[in-house]
Amino acid sequence: MTTPAPFSGPVGVGFIGTGVISDQYLTNLTTFPDLEVLILGDLNTEVAAAQAEKYGIPASGTAQDVLDHPGVQVVVNLTIPAVHAEISAAAVAAGKHVWTEKPLGLDRESTSALLTQADEAGLRIGCAPDTVLGAGVQTAKRAILDGLIGRPLFAQTSMQWQGPEVFHPNPAFLFAKGAGPLLDIGPYYFTTLVSLFGTVEKVAAMGLKAQEEREILVGPKKGEKFPVEPPSTISVLTQFEGGQTGTSLVSFDSPLARQGIVEIHGTEGSLVVPDPNMFEGRVAYVRPFASFGEAPPEQEWVEVPAAGPANGRGLGLLDMVRAIQEGRPHVASGEVGYHVLDIMLSAEESAASGEFVTVDSSVAEVPAVPADFDPLARTL
C-alpha cells in the first residue's frame, strides 16, 4: 500500500452532489478548521450555486469543475447510489481522496476495483455512515472494550415502520434495486455491529414484499404507483469471526414504528446502544440477576455517561484527513464500507436462495475514537 502524502494546512474539499443531505455536511464541514470547502458541483449547476451562496463557498459548477479544481484534495461524493462507485473512481483518477455517502457502491466488482485503484494511487476512501464516530456508539464501544458487560455474546437490532412513501414526494428509488430497507437503512446498523464486533463470516436471511406495487401518499405525485423490487422486509442472521451472533430486522412494512434498537448482550450484562442513524443518545446497561424468589424484581438500568464528538455528518471525513496526517487507519474506511456492502448483498442472496452465504471480505479491527477528539481544533 502506498502511503498518502501528508497535508501542509487545511485540506481543500469539493462536493459532487448538492442535494438535501449536502446541508447536513456543509453545516459541519464549514466549521472545521482542518477543512476548507472550495467548490460545489452538481448536474444542476443552479442548485450548486445556490448552496455555494448559502454557505459562503467561493466556487460552484459541474462535477468536472470539482475534479479539475487544483485546490481540491478530497471529493465528497453525495450523488445517487447508482453512480457512487463511478464518481468515486473518477475522483481517484483525478488524484483526489474520496469521502462517499453510503453505500460504497451497488456491486462487489466495481467497489472492489475502486479500493484497489485508490490503494495503488496512494489515496484514501472513506464511506458513510460516520455516525459510528459519534459519542453514542463510541461510548458503547469503549464500554465493551473495558469489559463492562463481560464477553459480548450476541446483538439484536431493529428498524421497522410503514415506509417512506408516507412523507417522501418521490419514494420510488427507495424501493428500487440497490435500495429497499436493507441497502438504504441497513448500513447504519451493520456498520455499528462491524465497528463493535469486527468481521462477519456468514449470513442467513429471509425476506418478503408486502406488495408488488406501492402508492405515493404525499406531494404532487400523490396517487401514483411504483414497483417494489427488493424485499421490503428482511431479517438477517449474522455470524461474526469472534464468535458473536446477531439478529437484525429492517422493514418498510410495519404499522408499528420502532427504530434505532441496538442491544449488545454479554456474559456480565446487557448494553443498549443509541440509534445508529444518530451521533449521540442513551447508553445504559443492566446486570444479570444474582437470584430471586417467585417473581424477578425490576431490573435497574445504569446510565453510561457519553463522551466524544456529536457534531454530525462530516466527522468521518475529518477523521480520515487527520488519519492521513498521522499515518494511522481511519474509522469509517472504504474497507469497512465494502465489508458492510458485502454483508448486505450476501443477505439478499441468502434470502433469494434459502441458504447460508459465506461473506468473503473481512476487515481489520476498527479503531476507537479518542474521547477527546475535537472537531473544532486546528491540527493541520
From TrEMBL:
<keyword id="KW-0560">Oxidoreductase</keyword>
<dbReference type="Pfam" id="PF01408">
    <property type="entry name" value="GFO_IDH_MocA"/>
</dbReference>
<dbReference type="InterPro" id="IPR050463">
    <property type="entry name" value="Gfo/Idh/MocA_oxidrdct_glycsds"/>
</dbReference>
<dbReference type="InterPro" id="IPR055170">
    <property type="entry name" value="GFO_IDH_MocA-like_dom"/>
</dbReference>
<keyword id="KW-0520">NAD</keyword>
<feature type="domain" description="GFO/IDH/MocA-like oxidoreductase">
    <location>
        <begin position="137"/>
        <end position="272"/>
    </location>
</feature>
<dbReference type="Pfam" id="PF22725">
    <property type="entry name" value="GFO_IDH_MocA_C3"/>
</dbReference>
<dbReference type="GO" id="GO:0016491">
    <property type="term" value="F:oxidoreductase activity"/>
</dbReference>
<feature type="domain" description="Gfo/Idh/MocA-like oxidoreductase N-terminal">
    <location>
        <begin position="12"/>
        <end position="125"/>
    </location>
</feature>
<dbReference type="InterPro" id="IPR036291">
    <property type="entry name" value="NAD(P)-bd_dom_sf"/>
</dbReference>
<protein>
    <submittedName>
        <fullName>Gfo/Idh/MocA family oxidoreductase</fullName>
    </submittedName>
</protein>
<dbReference type="GO" id="GO:0000166">
    <property type="term" value="F:nucleotide binding"/>
</dbReference>
<dbReference type="InterPro" id="IPR000683">
    <property type="entry name" value="Gfo/Idh/MocA-like_OxRdtase_N"/>
</dbReference>
